[in-house]
Write a structure and sequence with these properties.
The complex is a heterodimer. By secondary structure, chain A is α/β, with parallel strands linked by helices. Chain A is built from seven helices and 15 strands. Chain A is 30% helix and 30% strand. In chain A, the strands form three sheets. Chain A has a nine-stranded mixed β-sheet, sandwiched between helices. In chain A, helix 2 crosses helix 5 and helix 3 packs across helix 4. Chain B contains nine helices and 17 strands. Chain B is α/β, with parallel strands linked by helices. In chain B, helix 3 crosses helix 4 and helix 5 packs parallel to helix 9. Chain B folds into two domains: 183 residues, Rossmann fold (3-Layer(aba) Sandwich); 118 residues, Rossmann fold. The chains are: A alpha/beta, B alpha/beta. Chains A and B meet through helix 3, helix 4, strand 9, strand 10 and strand 11 of A and helix 4, strand 7, strand 8, strand 9 and strand 12 of B.
């Protein structure tokens, strides 16, 4: 079984972010890490490929900085990493992402399953995942909490939806997005880290994929910090907790939130 | 031309967020001077179609068939795609639920059209839609615009928009359409559904009571459950509480959990790490109960009580029972 994982690098989740005067994200000296959801995707791919004697290929679409996520996945044990990038793709939207990612999966040729983490934490988006499934014309299962079975050309999954847990099944090849809790991601081993550091990561560009992407239809017109809430907290005092509780309830009634 | 709003249903009941999307759809349709059409797909959806008119739709397109009883991407996207292709709506809206995000992403891709996903605000300027989105775990806001001239797809952050009060005197035309795929042509089968029993859905909840590491144990959540019951609130948790095994992952709020925007978020024994803030910072009023006056959660909170949650929470429950007459 050949499993592909889609990943990307994101600023460390605790990084303090600012916006540069020309409207870009400034993460200061915070490191880039693998998108926090993607560790679960890599781990699930390693577990499933391991069980079937298969291979894991990780793909990241983006400029040089996305190497970081690929190296992390290699250090965890992925067999192969490829970065997809072409300078002509700057500013591409989710449709462009899906077209390029799907072209790479087709180029690999024998892929049974594509696994993504639930969303990209930086752009807060899962659209590219769903559109990749569409571009491939494959079955899609999002918000997968557990793979129940993966055999005989079929996949059965448990999905976590708003109302509860859904059990669903469909044919392979498929694209799935996985949640935290599906597994416990391993830490990269020392040997894995050394191997990953030495690994050459090829870059596939538009020519390699025989691809020209549509012009982006979404334009980001501004990036800004949200209004701050700091310094507005009112600490409720009182002689007893009962008195504090009474004061708080009074405030919440006045706010019309209860 | 029209504004379409997809009404999501589960077992024949509309998701509350669908009425929020319809409410915003009304505002967009009015601004563009075009009608508002609700799309209702399911089995036995007559009541839903009527309800959609009460919540603001001018017209309803209803597809009633066993293949549409449970949401599945293939038949839903095929039908939505056909309607978009034939009728060329200017805007298609849905709530940014698990299913709504998936369906509109697929339909937008098929229509070669832009999607503004999970937006916090949405307005019309010169015929084009402008929106803002929370990115980087809510640490930044991004203003986005979709290219004009094609159908524009938008999913709306749950609880960021208001539903209109239902008006049962409103009348609207209901048009029936047939599904596009037969059961044999649909590869995915739903084999079971285990509904989370007796609990308010976290993302739809107007009030969330959440516990962190300081809750200390699974039993420690009991006073939080009592408070939640009195308020009709959903139960949330920080990653620390989930990792410690006090409560299941479904309850996790934050960067690798759910994003919620309730009217009231009561954080009990949660320090408020930036990863937790990513899931709750758009709450309207935040209350922090924590022993440590230096906890970062107090920087986000509107009201704070510095104290032991095991004393404060039961006192709060008792006071609410008294005041809300539920004692």
């Amino acid at each position: 079984m050949h499993i592909v994982v889609g990943t990307r690098s994101t600023p460390d989740t605790a990084a303090r972010l600012e916006v540069t005067p020309d409207g870009r994200v400034d993460r200061g000296d915070a490191p880039l890490v693998i998108n926090p959801w993607d560790e679960y995707a890599v781990e699930e791919a390693l577990l499933r490929a391991g069980a079937s004697g298969g291979a894991v290929t990780v793909l990241a679409l983006g400029p040089e900085e996305h190497q970081e996520a690929l190296k992390h996945a290699l250090a965890m044990g992925a067999d192969r990493a490829i970065r997809l990038w072409d300078d002509a793709w700057t500013g591409l939207d989710s449709r462009g992402y899906a077209a390029a990612f799907a072209a790479a999966v087709r180029h690999l040729g024998d892929v049974d399953l594509v696994i993504f983490g639930k969303e990209a934490a930086d752009e807060a988006s899962d659209t590219h995942i769903f559109q990749t499934a569409r571009a491939l014309g494959w079955t899609l299962f999002s918000a997968v909490a557990r793979i129940v079975a993966l055999e005989s050309g079929r996949i059965r999954v448990e999905q976590l939806l708003e109302e509860g847990r859904q059990l669903a099944a469909g044919p392979l090849p498929a694209v799935i997005s996985v949640l935290r809790g599906i597994n416990e991601p391993r830490y990269p081993s020392f040997i894995g880290i050394r191997k990953a550091a030495r690994a050459e990561v090829p870059v596939w560009d538009g020519a390699a994929l025989g691809l020209s992407l549509p012009a982006p239809a979404i334009q980001v017109t501004g990036l800004r910090l949200p209004p701050t809430r700091e310094g507005t907290c009112e600490i409720i005092g009182g002689d007893t907790v009962e008195a504090q509780a009474a004061t708080l309830v009074e405030k919440l009634l006045a706010e019309k939130v209860i | 031309m029209a504004v379409y709003v997809w009404i999501e249903q589960f077992k024949g009941k509309a998701s509350p967020a669908s009425w929020e999307a319809l409410g915003q759809g009304r505002a967009i349709a009015n601004a563009l001077g075009i009608p508002l059409t609700a799309l209702v797909f399911g089995q036995g959806v007559d009541a839903l179609a009527t309800e959609a008119v009460h919540y603001g739709a001018d017209k309803v397109i209803a597809a009633d068939d066993s293949t549409l009883a449970d949401y599945r991407l293939e038949p839903y996207a095929a039908l939505l795609g056909k309607l978009v292709q034939e009728e060329d709506p200017q805007v298609v809206l849905a709530a940014a639920t698990s299913r709504g995000r998936e369906l509109l992403a697929a339909a937008a891709f098929d229509a070669d059209a832009p999607l503004l996903a999970d937006v916090l605000t949405l307005d019309v300027s010169d015929g084009a839609l402008r929106a803002s989105r929370a990115v980087y775990g809510g640490r930044l806001l991004s203003d986005v615009r979709a290219a004009a001239g094609r159908t524009q797809f938008v999913t709306l952050r749950v609880r960021a928009f208001r539903a209109l009060p239902p008006d049962t005197t409103r009348q609207g035309e209901v048009r029936r359409v047939a599904p596009t795929l037969a059961e044999e042509a649909i590869a995915v089968k739903i084999e079971g559904f285990e509904v989370a029993a007796g609990e308010v859905s976290l993302t739809d909840a107007a009030i969330v009571v959440a516990g962190g590491r300081a809750v200390g144990s699974a039993e420690g959540f009991a006073p939080l459950r009592e408070l939640a019951a009195v308020l009709g609130a959903a139960l949330g948790a920080s990653r620390a509480a989930v990792d410690a095994g006090y409560i299941s992952y479904e309850h996790q709020v934050g960067q690798t959990g759910k994003v919620v925007s309730p009217d009231l978020y009561i954080a009990c024994g949660i320090s408020g790490a930036v990863q937790h803030q990513a899931g709750m910072r758009s709450s309207r009023v935040i209350v922090a109960i924590n022993k440590d006056p230096e906890a970062p959660i107090f920087k986000l909170a509107r009201y704070g009580i510095v104290g032991d949650l095991f004393q404060v929470v039961p006192a709060l429950t008792a006071e609410l029972k008294k005041r809300l007459g539920k004692g």
